[in-house]
């Protein structure tokens, strides 16, 4: 286990995993078994390496956590986080707060939480789930699966010509889709 304390910017390299920290207050970090968690307000964590299967997670308030071109597991924490998978097939998940979650390239799984979340899939066949509250979910390129969950959600599967599956869930949802998309549980459907 490595324990790192910092007040400014820090770059940590352990094997094939390279992480960059910026911003935030004084921070103590522990890196063990490929899991790294932020612990203070305003941290930015990014995986600059190309080690597939690494896990990045935040435990404070307001982190920005970015993956790499490899596939990662990225978990936010309480507070409003910005999660980005970059490349690779990623799992990005956040349980609380109002979050921005972006899959970018790869076949990604994005999971919002109890807050007002903005989910953007990017290129690839992505699965995006808003779960609770009023979320905005954009599938973008690829044959995506969009699930609003509870709340009054806005789901956008149009514009790429791919056969998306769009499910609004409980609430008063608006779904913007192509003619090739499959739509369910959506009170307001706009076909482009």
UniProtKB/TrEMBL annotation:
What InterPro entries does the entry give? Hemolysin-typ_Ca-bd_CS, Hemolysn_Ca-bd, RTX_toxin/Mannuronan_C5-epim, Serralysin-like_metalloprot_C
Q: Name one GO molecular function term.
A: calcium ion binding
UniProtKB keywords? Secreted, Signal
State the signal peptide span: 1-28
Taxonomic superkingdom: Bacteria
Localization: Secreted
Cellular component terms per the entry's GO annotation: extracellular region
Q: What is this protein called?
A: Hemolysin-type calcium-binding region
């Amino acid at each position: 286990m490595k324990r790192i304390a910092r007040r400014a910017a820090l770059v940590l390299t352990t094997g094939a995993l390279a992480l960059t920290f910026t911003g935030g207050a004084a921070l103590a970090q522990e890196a063990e078994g490929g899991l790294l968690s932020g612990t203070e307000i305003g941290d930015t964590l990014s995986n600059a390496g190309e080690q597939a299967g690494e896990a990045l997670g935040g435990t404070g308030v307001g982190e920005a956590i970015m993956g790499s071109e490899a596939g990662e597991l990225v978990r936010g924490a309480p507070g409003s986080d910005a999660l980005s998978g970059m490349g690779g097939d990623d799992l990005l998940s956040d349980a609380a707060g109002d979050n921005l979650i972006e899959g970018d390239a790869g076949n990604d799984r994005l999971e919002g939480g109890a807050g007002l979340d903005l989910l953007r899939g990017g290129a690839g066949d992505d699965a995006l789930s808003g779960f609770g509250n009023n979320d905005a979910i954009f599938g973008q390129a690829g044959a995506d699966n969009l699930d609003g969950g509870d709340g009054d959600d806005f789901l956008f599967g149009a514009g790429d010509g791919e056969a998306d599956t769009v499910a609004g869930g409980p609430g008063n949802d608006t779904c913007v889709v192509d003619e090739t998309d499959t739509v369910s549980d959506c009170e307001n459907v706009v076909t482009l």
